[in-house]
Design goal:
The chain has 463 residues and is mainly alpha-helical. The protein contains 21 helices and 6 strands.
């Protein structure tokens, strides 16, 4: 495997060891991507000003529209480097994009662009551009990368649940044997939780503002007082960009929606963490085996090992992602007076949280795809766990109004050998309705699964 030298020198593993696995995120969270999203906002704002006939501007002719569209479509790494060169001279990242566009306009051979270079970034503060750029980044990431990955996990859980819907399995509460379930039911539980958490992530409204240096349209109102700037910017945010307009802000959009999104992503991570630990546990119990890769090594000293590394790596990366998202939800909603710059460096790292989450999702998917169900081991455990029938026996005794039902079962089962012989002899001793007694005789640990199968079938109908 060829590894580029800069990957050896990377400080963050996402840009080094894991670079190839998170390559898809470059289009959203790299410096190049941020500049591209800023460029898009600047161009669309210029178009909006033209469509609103602000000042001397008028709706653009096709030639100008095509020219502006070409700037976006053909935006290359060379132009990113040019913007970074400008930034190095003026020490301002957003202003560098404006200067780049002004130069493009001057060299465009399109008269309405050449004569209106001063209308690029018109009436804007940097945060107008940045907050809309981050809104676009997070929306596009959520609606493409996140939804695709989480749906693949949900689909894989459905596949395994369908295969194991009728595989009876011992439950474990507090680590001890408990009333049986099915393997399919336990995986369907996670599927249901992930569906709900996914839908909450998708329900978050993505807000953006475009109201100037302190949120009052000061410069725009001073220069062009006859325009309804709140409505113009609403149309820009909602029609041109597809976000929800937030009219009540300071210089910064307060990031409450990013906090909400972060919190919902923490919930997704927590559910997946729970899944990882349960899969790890079932592998440890021998209920799952893992498909082996021919040349893969599990231990540097124990040749037999096939470790559950996908779930272990996912657990660690989910923890990193969660810590960062929790920080975002606390930090980004706080800014001194009308703004300070402490949110800027935090927002630049939002891709790190997404990256570790993405890495974890990828590991979980690989881990799930490698699982084989060890039906023999699962059957052996449940067939030797007659103690789980203490629950239905005492419940049937209660139905028949038999005094001290729970206590009698406790006396003969708690911490004692409670095998098939003990169970059957105890049932024979009961004086109760014969139909009820017959139902108890027909119970085995493997068929005492309640409505597990029906619950799974109902869950798997849902998307």
């Amino acid at each position: 495997m060829a590894i580029k030298e800069n990957e050896f020198l990377a400080i963050c593993p996402l840009d080094g060891r894991y670079r190839k696995r998170v390559q898809e995120l470059v289009d959203y969270f790299s410096e190049s991507a941020l500049i591209r999203y800023r460029l898009q906002v600047e161009i669309l704002w210029f178009k909006r000003l033209c469509n609103e006939s602000v000042g001397n501007l008028r709706p653009l002719e096709d030639k100008a529209v095509k020219e502006l569209d070409k700037w976006q479509k053909e935006f290359s790494i060379n132009e990113v480097q040019e913007i970074k060169r400008i930034e190095s001279e003026i020490n301002h990242d957003v202003k560098a994009v404006e200067y780049f566009l002004r130069k493009k306009a001057e060299n465009s051979k399109v008269e309405c662009l050449i004569s209106n270079v001063e209308m690029f970034h018109f009436g804007c503060t940097s945060e107008d551009i940045n907050n809309v750029a981050y809104a676009g980044i997070l929306k596009d990431f959520r609606d493409s990368v996140f939804i695709s990955k989480i749906n693949r996990i949900i689909d894989q859980l459905k596949y395994i649940a369908e295969e194991t819907v009728s595989v009876p399995m011992l439950s474990r509460t507090h680590g001890q044997t408990a009333s049986p379930t099915t393997m399919g039911k336990e995986l369907a539980n996670f599927r249901a939780r992930l569906r709900g958490a996914r839908d909450k992530v998708l329900s978050i409204k993505i807000l953006a503002k475009f109201n100037g240096a302190v949120g009052n349209f000061n410069a725009l109102e001073a220069v062009f007082p006859d325009y309804n700037w709140a409505e113009i910017t609403r149309r820009f945010i909602e029609k041109d960009l597809g976000h929800t307009f937030n009219p009540m802000t300071t210089q910064i959009e307060p990031h409450d929606w990013i906090a909400s999104l972060s919190n919902e992503l923490v919930l997704v991570n927590s559910i997946l963490l729970d899944l990882c630990r349960d899969c790890w546990g079932y592998i440890s119990l021998g209920y799952f085996s893992q498909k082996k890769k021919e040349k893969e090594v599990g231990s540097s000293t124990m040749p037999h090992k096939v470790n559950p590394i996908d779930f272990e790596n996912a657990e660690g990366n989910l923890g990193l992602s969660t810590c960062l998202f929790q920080h975002y939800s606390i930090k980004l909603t706080v800014s001194r007076y009308q703004r300070d710059l402490s949110d800027s460096t935090v927002l630049r790292n939002i891709g790190v949280a997404a990256g570790y989450g993405f890495l974890a999702f990828d590991s979980i998917l690989h881990g799930l795809e490698k699982l084989d169900v060890n039906r023999e081991k699962i059957k052996s455990d449940i067939d030797n766990a007659w103690e789980v029938l203490a629950e239905p026996i005492q419940t049937m005794m209660r139905k028949n109004n038999m005094e001290g039902a729970y206590e009698k079962l406790k006396d003969i089962s708690r911490g004692k050998r409670f095998d098939e012989t003990v169970v059957l002899n105890f049932i024979r001793s009961l004086k109760m309705d014969e139909k009820d007694k017959s139902r108890l005789f027909n119970l085995k640990p493997s068929n005492y699964i309640g409505a597990a199968e029906a619950l799974v079938e109902e869950e798997l109908k849902k998307n």
